Amino acid sequence: MTTTRLVCCIQLSALLLAGCLDTQTQDSHDPPLVYSAEPTAASEADEAYDPASNPKITATLYAQSAAEHHASTRTIYMAAKLQLPAALKDQAWAAALEQGEDAADKPVAVILDVDETVLDNSPYQVQAINEDLQHPEGWDAWCELEAAEPVAGALEFTTFAASQGVTVFYVTNRDSKLEASTRANLVAAGFPVAEDIDVVLTKNERPEWTSDKSSRRALVAQDYRILMLFGDQLGDFTGGDAAKGKTPAERDAVVEAHAQRWGTQWFMLPNPEYGAWDSVTYGHDYDQSERSKTAARLKAMHGPPASE
Questions:
Q1: In this structure, are residues 239 and 121 in contact, taking their beta carbons and an 8 Å threshold?
Q2: Mind listing the pLDDT tens digit for each residue in 226-235?
Q3: Structural domain boundaries of the chain?
Q4: Gyration radius of the chain over CA positions
Q5: How far is CA 262 from CA 99, 101, 111, 114, 119, in A?
Q6: Which CATH class is domain 54-290?
Q7: What is the pLDDT of residues 231-247, one digit of tens each?
Q8: Buried-state track 154-184, b at ≥16 Cβ within 10 A, e below 16
Q9: 152, 171, 271, 286: which sits with the fewest CB atoms below 10 Å from its CB?
Q10: Cα dihedral angle (63, 284, 169, 92), rounded to 10 degrees?
Q11: The pLDDT value given to residue 2
Q12: Please, what is the average pLDDT of the chain?
């Protein structure tokens, strides 16, 4: 073997040996590489959006297409319809926390939220999934189409209530600029909408009318005995801060505090698509990346207990 070839072989062997030692050292002492739930902004931005990966697909499909969902909303409204005669007869019956003590002789009313309580906005949710829209992107345009269909059971209940002399109020967190289109959508869908008084009470319609609906319920309570409340969020029944909560346990405590009202005076509609039930899991921090929100959602879930 020539001297040159011998030197090359020695150098190659040294390199290979060093590589093996480095690999062994890394395997023995370095922590294993793990998937990070929070990618860098650049890596997330580089990923092409795939609608099929959107975490809201199943919830939206259920709300839009499940016969079980339609059956559950019908069940809730039918239960309310059966309770209404008793509520009308009992002059002490008052559903709103904002109701005063002198309500016995007042005319009667019910208050309903609009979105996912009486009007179904699942087509907008489908658009948001397909086009990667983040609310409020596209929301105003959807509302202005005036194309939302009734939530199953809502039309039958409100029509019956109106036939019994009950004034139907719609308290919504749609912005005041959408009031005209919201009213038109309700009328087109067949809902009773009084013409001589304002029964569609929107956010920002007055300076004090924030997303907390308490002030609007209080206004109705000044002139009416409120028999029932309907909504899909805790804020449709209680003050906004309490309803939003900082943890799921805090929100559960609000439900327990009013246990006797559910199913008699308060009627909750299921909404698997959006709401504080979801955002509370990531601290209501809407500016987080979607991947970070999903990681927080997973952390908030409870699996089976660990086996011993």
A1: no
A2: 999 999 999 9
A3: 54-290
A4: 28
A5: 17, 21, 15, 19, 21
A6: alpha beta
A7: 999 999 999 888 999 99
A8: bbebbeebbeeebbbbbbbbbbbebbebbbe
A9: 286
A10: 110
A11: 40
A12: 88
